[in-house]
Every structure is written in C-alpha cells, then in structure tokens.
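User: quick one, fold this
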Amino acid sequence: MRLADLPANGEWVLLGEDPPHEIAFGAIGRFWAGETVWEQISAARFATFDRPGLARIACDFSLRPYGDGRTLVSYEVPHAGDRPESRRAFLRYWPSPFVGAVLRSQLRVVARM
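Assistant:
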C-alpha cells in the first residue's frame, strides 16, 4: 500500500496530511508478542481508542526545503499504550533490532524518491 492510498478505515489509516509537506498515519494493535494483531479502526476513532492489551502507533513524515535543491526529511513515531501492561510490553519491543530495521527501510524508500 502506498501512503497516498491510505484509507480512512482499516488497519493503517490516514490521520492527516498537508501535501506535499507532511503525512501522518497510524495503526492500533498488539505488535510486540509474536504474531502481529492489527485492529480495524477509523481515523476518527484513533485518538480515543481504548481497549486493553493494545497500543496506538502514529507515524509522521515531514518534508521541508533544506538549502538549494535539498530536502530535510523528519520521521516521528509517537506511541501510546492504553494500559500500564501494554505500555510496558511495547517499551520492551520498541528498541528491538526489528524496529530499527523497519524504520531504516522506510527512510531508504523516501531517499529513493
């Protein structure tokens, strides 16, 4: 799926955008314990979703001019566990080598554009 094709309802949803400068998208699920389980959500419910055992993750790509013919790319990934036990599980998962590999892969895709 391309970022431009993100739906308002689904597993990963478009949360907001300011083309061509910024796009934010997010998902809710349990992605720290073996098989990833994603929730079907709507963009409208993302901020208020509250179910035990799940966490929210949002991603934001921001593109800004940086000198002559260059672009500064910022990538933020805020996250929130809905309950203390979810937050603890997520914080154990977040610094894993897998997460770093995914983030670097996404930035390589942006660099090729």
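User: anything notable?
Assistant: The longest helix spans residues 97-112.
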